[in-house]
Amino acid sequence: MKKKFRLAILVLALIGIIAPAGSVFAGTLTQFTASTEDGKIIAEGKAADGVYAVQVFVYNEAGTELVASKSTAVNADNTFKDTIEVPEGTFLVKAADYAGGEFLSMTVKASDTTTKEPGTGDNTLLITFAFLGTASMLTILTMTAKNRKR
User: Fold this and answer.
1) How many CB atoms lie within 10 A of CB 86?
2) What value does the mean pLDDT take over residues 12-27?
């Protein structure tokens, strides 16, 4: 009797170890769009109830090389939105529930159209003129001082 009891306990323990603790819910995305702005891909959309995070993958145009990947949280209203910086080019953007599920995809073209704010940028020319002006002023003062001593 003890052997049967031990065997039953052993079998139950093995089933508990081998059997999965619970099933994983793989939700779906109900809407997905990808657009570009200033060298960034904007991935946004809506997920089904029970989806807590979305994984976004950015591939080259052929879909053979992964360029970037980002996960983003799903808001309480089931929407999500995130940006991914990319170089100029055409990209295949795919998104799905972080836990799995069907991918939705779009192809977008990104161009670096970032603009500099007025007053920013390279100040080399300004520094050069300031240096030359200072050097000229010192030369004039030195020559004036020498002429006074004569």
Assistant:
1) 18
2) 51
Strands (E), the chain: 29-37, 40-47, 53-60, 66-73, 79-85, 89-97, 104-110
58-69 burial code (b ≥16 CB/10 A, e <16):
bbeeeeeeebee
**Structure-block tokens of residue 130:** 């300031």
Tokens of 71: 């996960």
pLDDT of residue 28: 84
Q: What is the mean pLDDT of residues 115-141?
A: 57
Q: Going by C-beta distance under 8 Å and a sequence separation of 6 or more, which residues neighbour residue 27? A: 47, 48, 49, 50, 51, 97, 99, 101
pLDDT tens for 53-82 read 999 999 999 999 999 999 999 999 999 999
* Ordered DSSP codes for 39-63: TEEEEEEEE-TT--EEEEEEEETTS
